[in-house]
Records
---
Amino acid sequence: MSGPLLAVDGLVKHFPMDRRRKVQAVNDVSFEIGGGEALALVGESGSGKTTTGRCILRLIQPTAGAIRFDGMDLLAMEPRSFRALRPRIQMVFQEPYDSLSPRMRIGAIVEEPLKLAGSAGPAERLDRVAEILDLVRLGSGTMNRYPHQFSAGQQQRIGIARALATRPDLVVLDEPTSALDVSVRAEVLDLLSDLRADLGVSYLFISHDLTAVRRVCDRVAIMYLGKIVETGETEAIFERPLHPYSRALLSSVLYPDPEVDLPRFTLEGEIPSPINLPRGCHLHGRCPWAESRCEDRYPEVERHDAGRAVSCHRAREMAGA
Amino acid sequence: MPTLLAIDDLHVSFETDRGRTAILHGISLDLEPGQTIGVVGESGSGKTVLVRAVLGLLDAPFAIDGGRIEYEGANLLEYGEAELERIRGRDIALTTPEPRKHLNPLTTIGDQIAKVIRAHADVSKEAAMARAVELLGMVGIPDPELRLAGYPHEMSGGMCQRIIIAMALAHDSKILLIDEPTAGLDVTISRQILDLIRGLVRDRGAAALIVSRDLGVVAHYCRDVAVMYAGRIVEQAEVGTFFRQPLHPYSARLLRAAAAARDRAVGRAEATALLPPALDGCSYAPRCALAEPACEASIPGPAEPAAGRWVRCLRAAAIAHGEVAV
């Protein structure tokens, strides 16, 4: 395959509220994911990260922009062709129990996407279900049990098994570990890393949990009010965030060690409403670096080394400071 | 230091048609002025039941089977509903991790906060509204005057969470029971709320019990930690000592899991043996790598290996002396 597996270009999604107002959830977002790569989409509530994920699965129709999957234009596709493609793009949801039908046995839950794909007969499907349940370390023996008989961590493994059953190229994971206890969170993150290494699947990992992202993803895109403000390799961003919003977000992480000093880079006030987006840079009203040009126009994307890109008028200047 | 709240040997059970299940098996915990204790443990360990029991908020099928909760010389477990109403929200305030369930969808935010204020203070509606604006400002809600006329459904989950916390701060309560303060809050707002609670405890001589699954919150915002497992406190210690040297095997596992989830440099997470807690003997024994036959025979009593810290584990002394590794 040449070119990226997924290329999102200039994605916009506005939800109309009434005749005059609209929620501007996603405002010109572009990114790419290569084959076997894991990209994190990180941000706080209202950043547009979940809406972006839903647009890719065509669960909602974008207002503008293009989404290419393996070179094909997803948005221009007829529903029938998109359905044929659907086994290659799957999703894992945040609430493991809520996303599993309580009346279906585990085997049937994991088999469902294979049935929808329609390419395999019953015997072949059964083999695949057994194989995938082994792969997520639940064991094929769990096939005849019901979701409520499992712990939250195991339920999330069922959700992961269902997503992987059709051998997708891309899995969109929406906050896959947020609902889990700390004791099982790390295990699920490790499982996701192993599966990617073994299967070569790509992830779009949507999360507000920066540290979960650090364990699983190669690259990170940080979103604020519907725009990506910074992207780069995961470790590089954690070591030295360049955008003021990235700095604030990363310095808010509470590491489970009282001896780790808490760096403080604080922003004033609250995330503004996506209904009335601030003019200029969306962050200027909260940013300690803001100057007059920040109020006037949204900063261009500035490219740095190693695929790092930052949208801030002052990032380069402040990086030296 | 005088004790503000003394929970002593609290037993709570849950009644089902198949009989009684014990939920809390003799919890004892003292809270002093200026102290913040973090209560940690996985879902189902009894953390929320514990804080709700303090204010008499456990309804059937929960039942209190014994113990004392001492506050200002009285046993709160003997209080009637009217006496509890007098201290709820005034002396002892509680926040919930499910804010929407506890806000009235049909009443404005302003009216709900004013009601909480006027329940214990003889002030006019106008004065209560002015105080409500001040409280919403404290928890970082922008344009608080405008928010007063709004309804819960117009607010985000994080906003509702902050409204619940604002209500808990209405009366300068001496005791704050904070259940999952950061659940559903964005990280930048979480820090703001935690700083606020820390300030109240420090400046007003209040005390807080913070229930949290997030060991980062405990590491940075609590003085002490109590680890719960299957309805018992299995270890209690000052935070610095605890993170340096946990003595209960379950605490050690919890710390390793937290580090693994937070740091790429840490090796792979250990697999969780999903075994239910034992009913006899040490409830952690089925999952414990250090368990001996004696662990299955009896429930280890609380041992105090050093002043101010104690642990329920037969092997705690050996662990403390470095004879076995947890």
Note: The CA atoms of residues 153 and 181 of chain A lie 8 Å apart.
---
Amino acid sequence: MQPGVTPPADSVEGGLWMVMEKAELRLKTSGRVIPDAELQAYVHDIACRLAGEHCANLRTYVVRQPGFNAAMAPNGFMTVWSGLILRCENEAQLAAVIGHEIAHFLRRHSLQRWETMRDSLGAAQVFGLVSAAAGVPLGDIALLGAVGYIQAYSRDQEREADELGLETMTAAGYDPQAAPQLWRNLIAEGEAADKDEPNPFFSSHPPTKERMEMLSDLAAAARTTDTAKQDRFHELVSRYRAVWLEDEVDVGRYAEIQVILSRIKEDGHMPGVVWYYQGEALRRHAEVEDKTEAIAALRKALEFDDAPAVTYRSLGLLLAKQGDAAGARRAYQSYLEKAADADDREMIRYYIKELEKRS
Amino acid sequence: MTRALNLIGCFLVVALLAGCTTFVAVSPAKKHEIGNVFRVQPSTLWSAKKDGNVENWTINGFDLEIVSFITKVTEGKAIAPKLQGDDAPTFQADMNATDVVNLYEAVLTARKFSQVEVRNLRPHTISGKDGFRFEYSGFDANGLAKRGMVVGLIDSENGLNLVIYEAAAEHYYDASREAAENVFDSLEKI
């Protein structure tokens, strides 16, 4: 059967489609899909260029969710997490992941995983796991840890998806070197982690050394044209970078965030925002007792025009704790001047009064 | 055989009653003490369930609307340690309202909330003591839109104390808001 052809309802694959359709409907009505038609169309367009004649069978959803994950369901819907786009340095890296997932879809690799799930789990568990395996960030996300066990692709399937993914991205005009580079970045992030947390994407796509070498060899052998226009990537990501970084900081994976921020800093995009989040991650990280580096990062952010006004607020909070009442007051005052519409102005004025009482 | 069935029946009744006894009615006719920190008199009948330093009230069911009193979160303790695990950010005595907002955002993250927006952090007074108040919105783990409001009080004796009203954004938040506001308005520090 070709992808996109609806399987008979009483077949094994038909059962999988039914569950996936429920998961897709749940995702669509959940409020997690980013309500930006331009961003959604942009990602869908990349998927279509990679999928070629199968474009009509694809539906893509960019969901607001920190962490690196993308997955494609056998009925043709793909979820791409905002945390994945945040971690991509360019459109070619995003295309590498999308192309790889489309390859799994075209080769119908998930059917085998479905049979494993169906045989070993109850209906409720199956729905949760299938949803999680399709990258739907709803329900018991603890299930994501179990997804790796259930959905791990075989080595042959991974190789096949890597080969086909690289082939399609190269044919679409992307530099295939983007694929191994993205994996190297992800490995560096994983190595920096404070704790070993299950990553749904790594669970199903283990980043082994052997695989990295194979990807590099395949990329080196590919005839690249590198002609794909990628200007819109930075334009669209700039729109959301601050929000997505805030999501990552809220999750509390501070060590990994530093790796991401270092990479974005090298690219030179939005330096004020990037330095602010570097300082903010250090400020919020309870295990970092000495906040000198956090203060330095926030001060560095303020050297750039794009530093958000909240940089002053964070600086004020840290200086107040360090006993620098005058410095804290100045920072709070600057925040009030820069953030005319901030809804916590009354609270900041209260902090200033308290500092004045103490001095 | 009949005796055995009777015994099983008794066990079932006892088990059911045991389950029921954890809920108590909160009458609007009198003041109630919460965690030896707050005294509160609601304007309507709530059902309450207590678990350690957390007391939860509801009118229509916890998934629809809930008022949570979290008291005596002391130095080095997380707001919701059972939910957040060992690596949770913890309350520190030198924290202020903005820090507590960050702590609360971490709780929402642990609850798998997404698209959390915190608004209107401002000073709030309870029995003449300086506290703070803020509102928030987001989508819960099931993708349901939720709204909430929080009143907080930090004191040197009891640490951090929070009173939280959270409800489904559609219908229930507005429907039970007046009852929740009355709870907030009646708060007294013991």
Note: The interface with chain A takes residues 87, 89-90, 92, 94, 96-99, 102, 105-106, 108-109, 112, 114-116, 119-123, 130, 132, 139, 141-143, 145 of chain B (CB under 8 Å).
